[in-house]
Structure formats: C-alpha cells, structure tokens
C-alpha cells in the first residue's frame, strides 16, 4: 500500500495553480495566517482547497501523482 501526501508545499501549489513560486508562497502564507499556524506547520491539501475553492479530489490526485483513469476499475 502506497502512502499518500496530505500536505501541500509551495512548489506543488505553484504547479496546481499555474502560478509562480513567489505567488504560491504568498498564498501558502495567507492560508497559514488564516489558520493561525506557525511558519513550520504544514498546510494540508484540504486547507489549500478550501481557501482556493478548488475540488479536493482533483488536487489530491495531482499532488500524489494519481491518474484517475487507473483508479477507476470496471466491475
């Protein structure tokens, strides 16, 4: 069984959003501020998706390199 990442970092956020790393860093910092997190505390994918109003499952799959076609199995 493969373990999946539940947190998102700046580089991953920049890829998901299609924005620069500096822009993603600003967003991650804003999310941490809104959740009153310390600088060393990670941002979860759920927190990121809630803040950016993005679909959780799609972002989770992107961050964890999960191909949706391979996860849906026909019965």
What is the helical fraction, as a range of percent?
55-70%
Radius of gyration: 13 Å
Give, in order, the helices and strands: EHHEHHH
Count of domain modules: 1
Number of helices: 5
Mean pLDDT level: 92
- Tell me the fraction of residues in β-strands, as a range: 5-15%
Structural class by secondary-structure content: mainly alpha
Number of strands: 2
* Largest beta-sheet details: 2 strands, antiparallel
Distance between the termini: 21 Å
- Largest beta sheet: strand ordering: 1-2
Low-confidence stretches: none
Q: What would the principal axes of the Cα set say about the shape?
A: globular
Folded structure, characterized:
It is a single chain. This protein is mainly α and 75 residues long. It has one domain. 56% of the residues lie in helices and 5% in strands. It is built from five helices and two strands, in the order βααβααα. It has helices at 10-17, 21-34, 45-52, 56-63, 68-71; strands at residues 7-8, 43-44. Helix 1 (10-17) packs across helix 2. 12% of the residues are buried.
